[in-house]
Each structure stands twice: as C-alpha cells, then as structure tokens.
Amino acid sequence: MSDFFEDALKTIRVTLLIVLIAMISIFAVILSLQAMFGPSDEQRAMGRVPAVVSSADGCTVYRFYDNSSWHYFTKCGGTVTTTKNYTENCGKGCTRSRTENMTTEGNQP
C-alpha cells in the first residue's frame, strides 16, 4: 500500500512542477507581449505634450501625462488656470485627496 501512496505523491509533485513551469512560461510570454505591443517611447513622449480635451465659451481645457498622473489646465483668452489633483498622507493609515488651482494672467492683445 505504501508504494501506491509514494507513486501518488510522485505524480502530484510532477504535476505541480509542470503547472509551475507552464505558469512561468505564460507569465514570460505576457511580459514579452507587453514589451512588444505596449506604448512606445514616442507614444509616451506624445502623452507629455498638452492636448486639447474640450473647448467652450472661449476657454480650452488641455491635459498632459507626467510622472504617472494626468495634469489638466485651462486657457481662457490670456488667462491660464492649472489644476493639480493628488493624494497626501495625513498620518498612519490616513490619506486625503487634495486639489490645487493656480491662475496665471497672460498678456492680453
């Protein structure tokens, strides 16, 4: 009877080893596909260039991507308003969302 259990344990170990090798292989394929088909350096650089989100009543909203977050700003005539949303730590286990707005008056013709 002990030969049966030894054979069963050996079969289970071999099966687990095969499953582990298969999972590692799938993970490697996923990583290589991400590297091949993920955003290129050019696409990442394009995200850093401000792009128009929308326009209304003479004001335009722009956004750009920097340091893993989107930054938005608006421009109305010669006035530019920049908004930054972020999370700050306020103690152990405590975070809060914050928003900063900055308005800059430009040269009016």
Question: What are the SSEs and their pairings?
Answer:
Blueprint: H1 2-37, H2 41-47, E1 51-56, E2 59-66, E3 69-76, E4 79-91, E5 94-105
Antiparallel strand pairs: 1-2, 2-3, 3-4, 4-5
Describe the structure.
The protein has 109 residues and is of the alpha+beta class. Helix content is 39%, strand content 43%. The protein contains two helices and five strands. Strands 1-2-3-4-5 form a five-stranded antiparallel sheet, with no helix packed on it. The radius of gyration is 27 Å and the shape is elongated. The mean pLDDT is 82.
What characterizes the major β-sheet? 5 strands, antiparallel
Helix content: 25-40%
Strand order of the largest sheet: 1-2-3-4-5
Helix segment tally? 2
Short description:
The chain is an alpha+beta fold and 109 residues long. The protein has two helices and five strands.
Keywords, please?
elongated; about 110 residues; alpha+beta; about 45% strand; five-stranded antiparallel beta sheet
